[in-house]
Amino acid sequence: MITDIFLTILYLTIKGLLTPITLLPNVSLTSSIGSAITTANGYLAALNGFVPVDVFVIILGLVLGVEVSIWALKVISWILKKIPTIS
Q: Cβ distance 77 to 3 under 8 Å?
């Protein structure tokens, strides 16, 4: 019940923060951003010969997943410590 309320509040907060972004008009990229993307793509293509980029994406996803899980555990523990009847 408490987790449900916390997740609902978190969802509504994120949705409220992102709502103004959806109201903005479409953004066109400048040539410098396009060239930066092209350059990064060239670097990734050269790196892909040694180790596939898919491996990097999977490793990055796993690392971020573990970090987010640890953070969520700390947040939930902190919330549970703030409730007076639960020790």
A: no
Domain annotation covers residue 76: yes
**Is-contact 3 76, C-beta < 8 A?**
yes
Instruction: Note down the domain range covering 79.
Output: 44-87
The whole-angstrom separation of Cα 48 and Cα 70 is 31
How open is the CA angle 53-58-59, to the nearest 5 degrees?
Answer: 95
Averaged over 66-76, what is the pLDDT?
A: 96
**What DSSP string runs through 35-49?**
HHHHHHHHHHHHHHT
pLDDT score at 87:
60
Distances (CA, A) of 24 to 4, 9, 19: 31, 24, 9
Q: How many domains does the chain have?
A: 1
